[in-house]
Amino acid sequence: MRGLSRIVFGALVALAVGPASVQAADKGSAYPNKPIRWIIDFPAAGVSDMLARTVGQRLAENLGQPVVFDNRPGANGIIANSLVAKSPPDGYTLGFISQPFSLQFTEHAKHGLRVEDFVAVGLIAEYPSLILVYPGVPVNNLKEFVAYAKKKSPPPTYASSGAGGAQHLAMEVFKKMAGFDAVHIPYSGSAPGLLDVMGGRVDSIFANLPGALPHIRAGRVKALAIAGKARNRVIADVPTFAEAGWPFDAPGYAGAVFPAHVPAALVTKINSEIVRILNMPEVQERILNAGCEARTSTPEAFAKFLREDIARWAPVLKSVGVTPRT
User: Fold this and answer.
1) What is the pTM of this model?
2) 109 is in which domain, residue-wise?
3) What is the CA radius of gyration of the chain?
4) Is the pLDDT of residue 20 over 90?
5) 113 found inside a domain
6) Distance separating alpha carbons of residues 168 and 189, to the nearest angstrom
7) Dihedrals φ, ψ of 196, to 5°?
8) pLDDT at position 228, please?
């Protein structure tokens, strides 16, 4: 994978790139003195949006400056991430990244993004994914869904947050594992895909739990199995894939990044504020009730996490022959 040998998130955290950056870092005590733009990789009402706003609203209160949320969905986060990468390294543009970030640095990617274009700020949350179906689909568990898919002609349809994204890849891997076929219908985020599943226009979706949870509780979709190591306490009656006979885990994450070359003092400041917010009991409870678990890290630890996740998905991309949308 292009760039894997040159991933330098940890080094970028401590990098000063000339007088302008040093000068900006020296002024870190006065930072910020204007609004911070937080570019979000997926649409409103999705998991990225919920987490960014939960943290960002408190970040604005703590910093004494507005945080302006800028949802830029499309191309599995590449549109948003490209905007972040091209922004001035002055600490006034944050990027909200999630699982698809780890899938964007392959040899065949044509968008021009490099891992060196970003500096890790910190982890925010982790969450599981799961298979959901339209209530009218005549199945109630994962085994029944696989049997139904094998018999149905034409094959059932499934939605995802976008071609080449984690949800798309997860379903493709599971299709191979279980030996059935399903037709992929990509969307620019989970939320619009979920709407079409709820409306019966698509049969199923591999979705993140946080965005799907309200619809599961309301009975607008049926949850068949959770792709995690253990059941989730907010939907404890939904079994894992392993319990249904297919050991499969597809975790998701969320975090914050800056454009490369933001001074270390500003990275440290924002990381410290995010950690402080995520340690607030009311924030942890809100995130947990949404189906996520709040996670904190140093910038260096988040950089290591991203390196490992990028490497983990590399063989998956190769095995299913998927080209990320660019």
Assistant:
1) 0.78
2) 4-127+251-320
3) 20
4) no
5) yes
6) 11
7) -75, -30
8) 85
